[in-house]
Amino acid sequence: MGFTYLTAQVFDVSEQHERFLRKGFTEGMAPTRLGDTAAISCVRLPDGDWLELSQRANLVGELPDL
User: Fold this and answer.
1) What is the pLDDT along the chain (66 residues), one digit of tens a residue?
2) Which of 15, 43, 52, 64 has the most CB atoms less than 10 A away?
3) What is the DSSP string of 11-55?
4) Strands 38-44 and 26-34, bridge-based pairing
5) Inter-residue contact 38 to 57 (CB < 8 Å)
6) Which helix (H) or strand (E) holds 59?
7) How many angstroms separate the CA atoms of 30 and 43, rounded?
8) Are 28 and 34 in contact (CB under 8 A)?
9) How far apart are CA 34 and CA 52, in angstroms?
């Protein structure tokens, strides 16, 4: 049984999202800001599972304007 999706906390969601796309991952959801709480995006792994990238304000400080 595989994961449906896994969340990874990152310091810069836009930078990491682009990094995964350059490595051949498929875009699942472009970087999006969720108010003042977090900025998130999703990429699809080669096996079809999802990886959510999460940049949370309470962990990294100010969020980017997306």
Assistant:
1) 466 778 999 999 999 999 999 999 999 999 999 999 999 999 998 888 899 999 999 998 888 888
2) 43
3) S-HHHHHHHHHHTTPEEEEEEEEETTTEEEEEEE-TTS-EEEEEE
4) antiparallel
5) yes
6) helix 57-60
7) 8
8) no
9) 14
Structure tokens at 13: 């969601």
Q: Say if CB 31 and CB 20 are below 8 A apart.
A: no
Check: CB of residue 65 under 8 Å from CB of residue 21. no
pTM equals 0.88
Query: What tokens were used for 9?
Result: 């906390």
Whole-angstrom distance, CA of residue 25 vs CA of residue 33: 21
The predicted structure's pLDDT at residue 25: 95
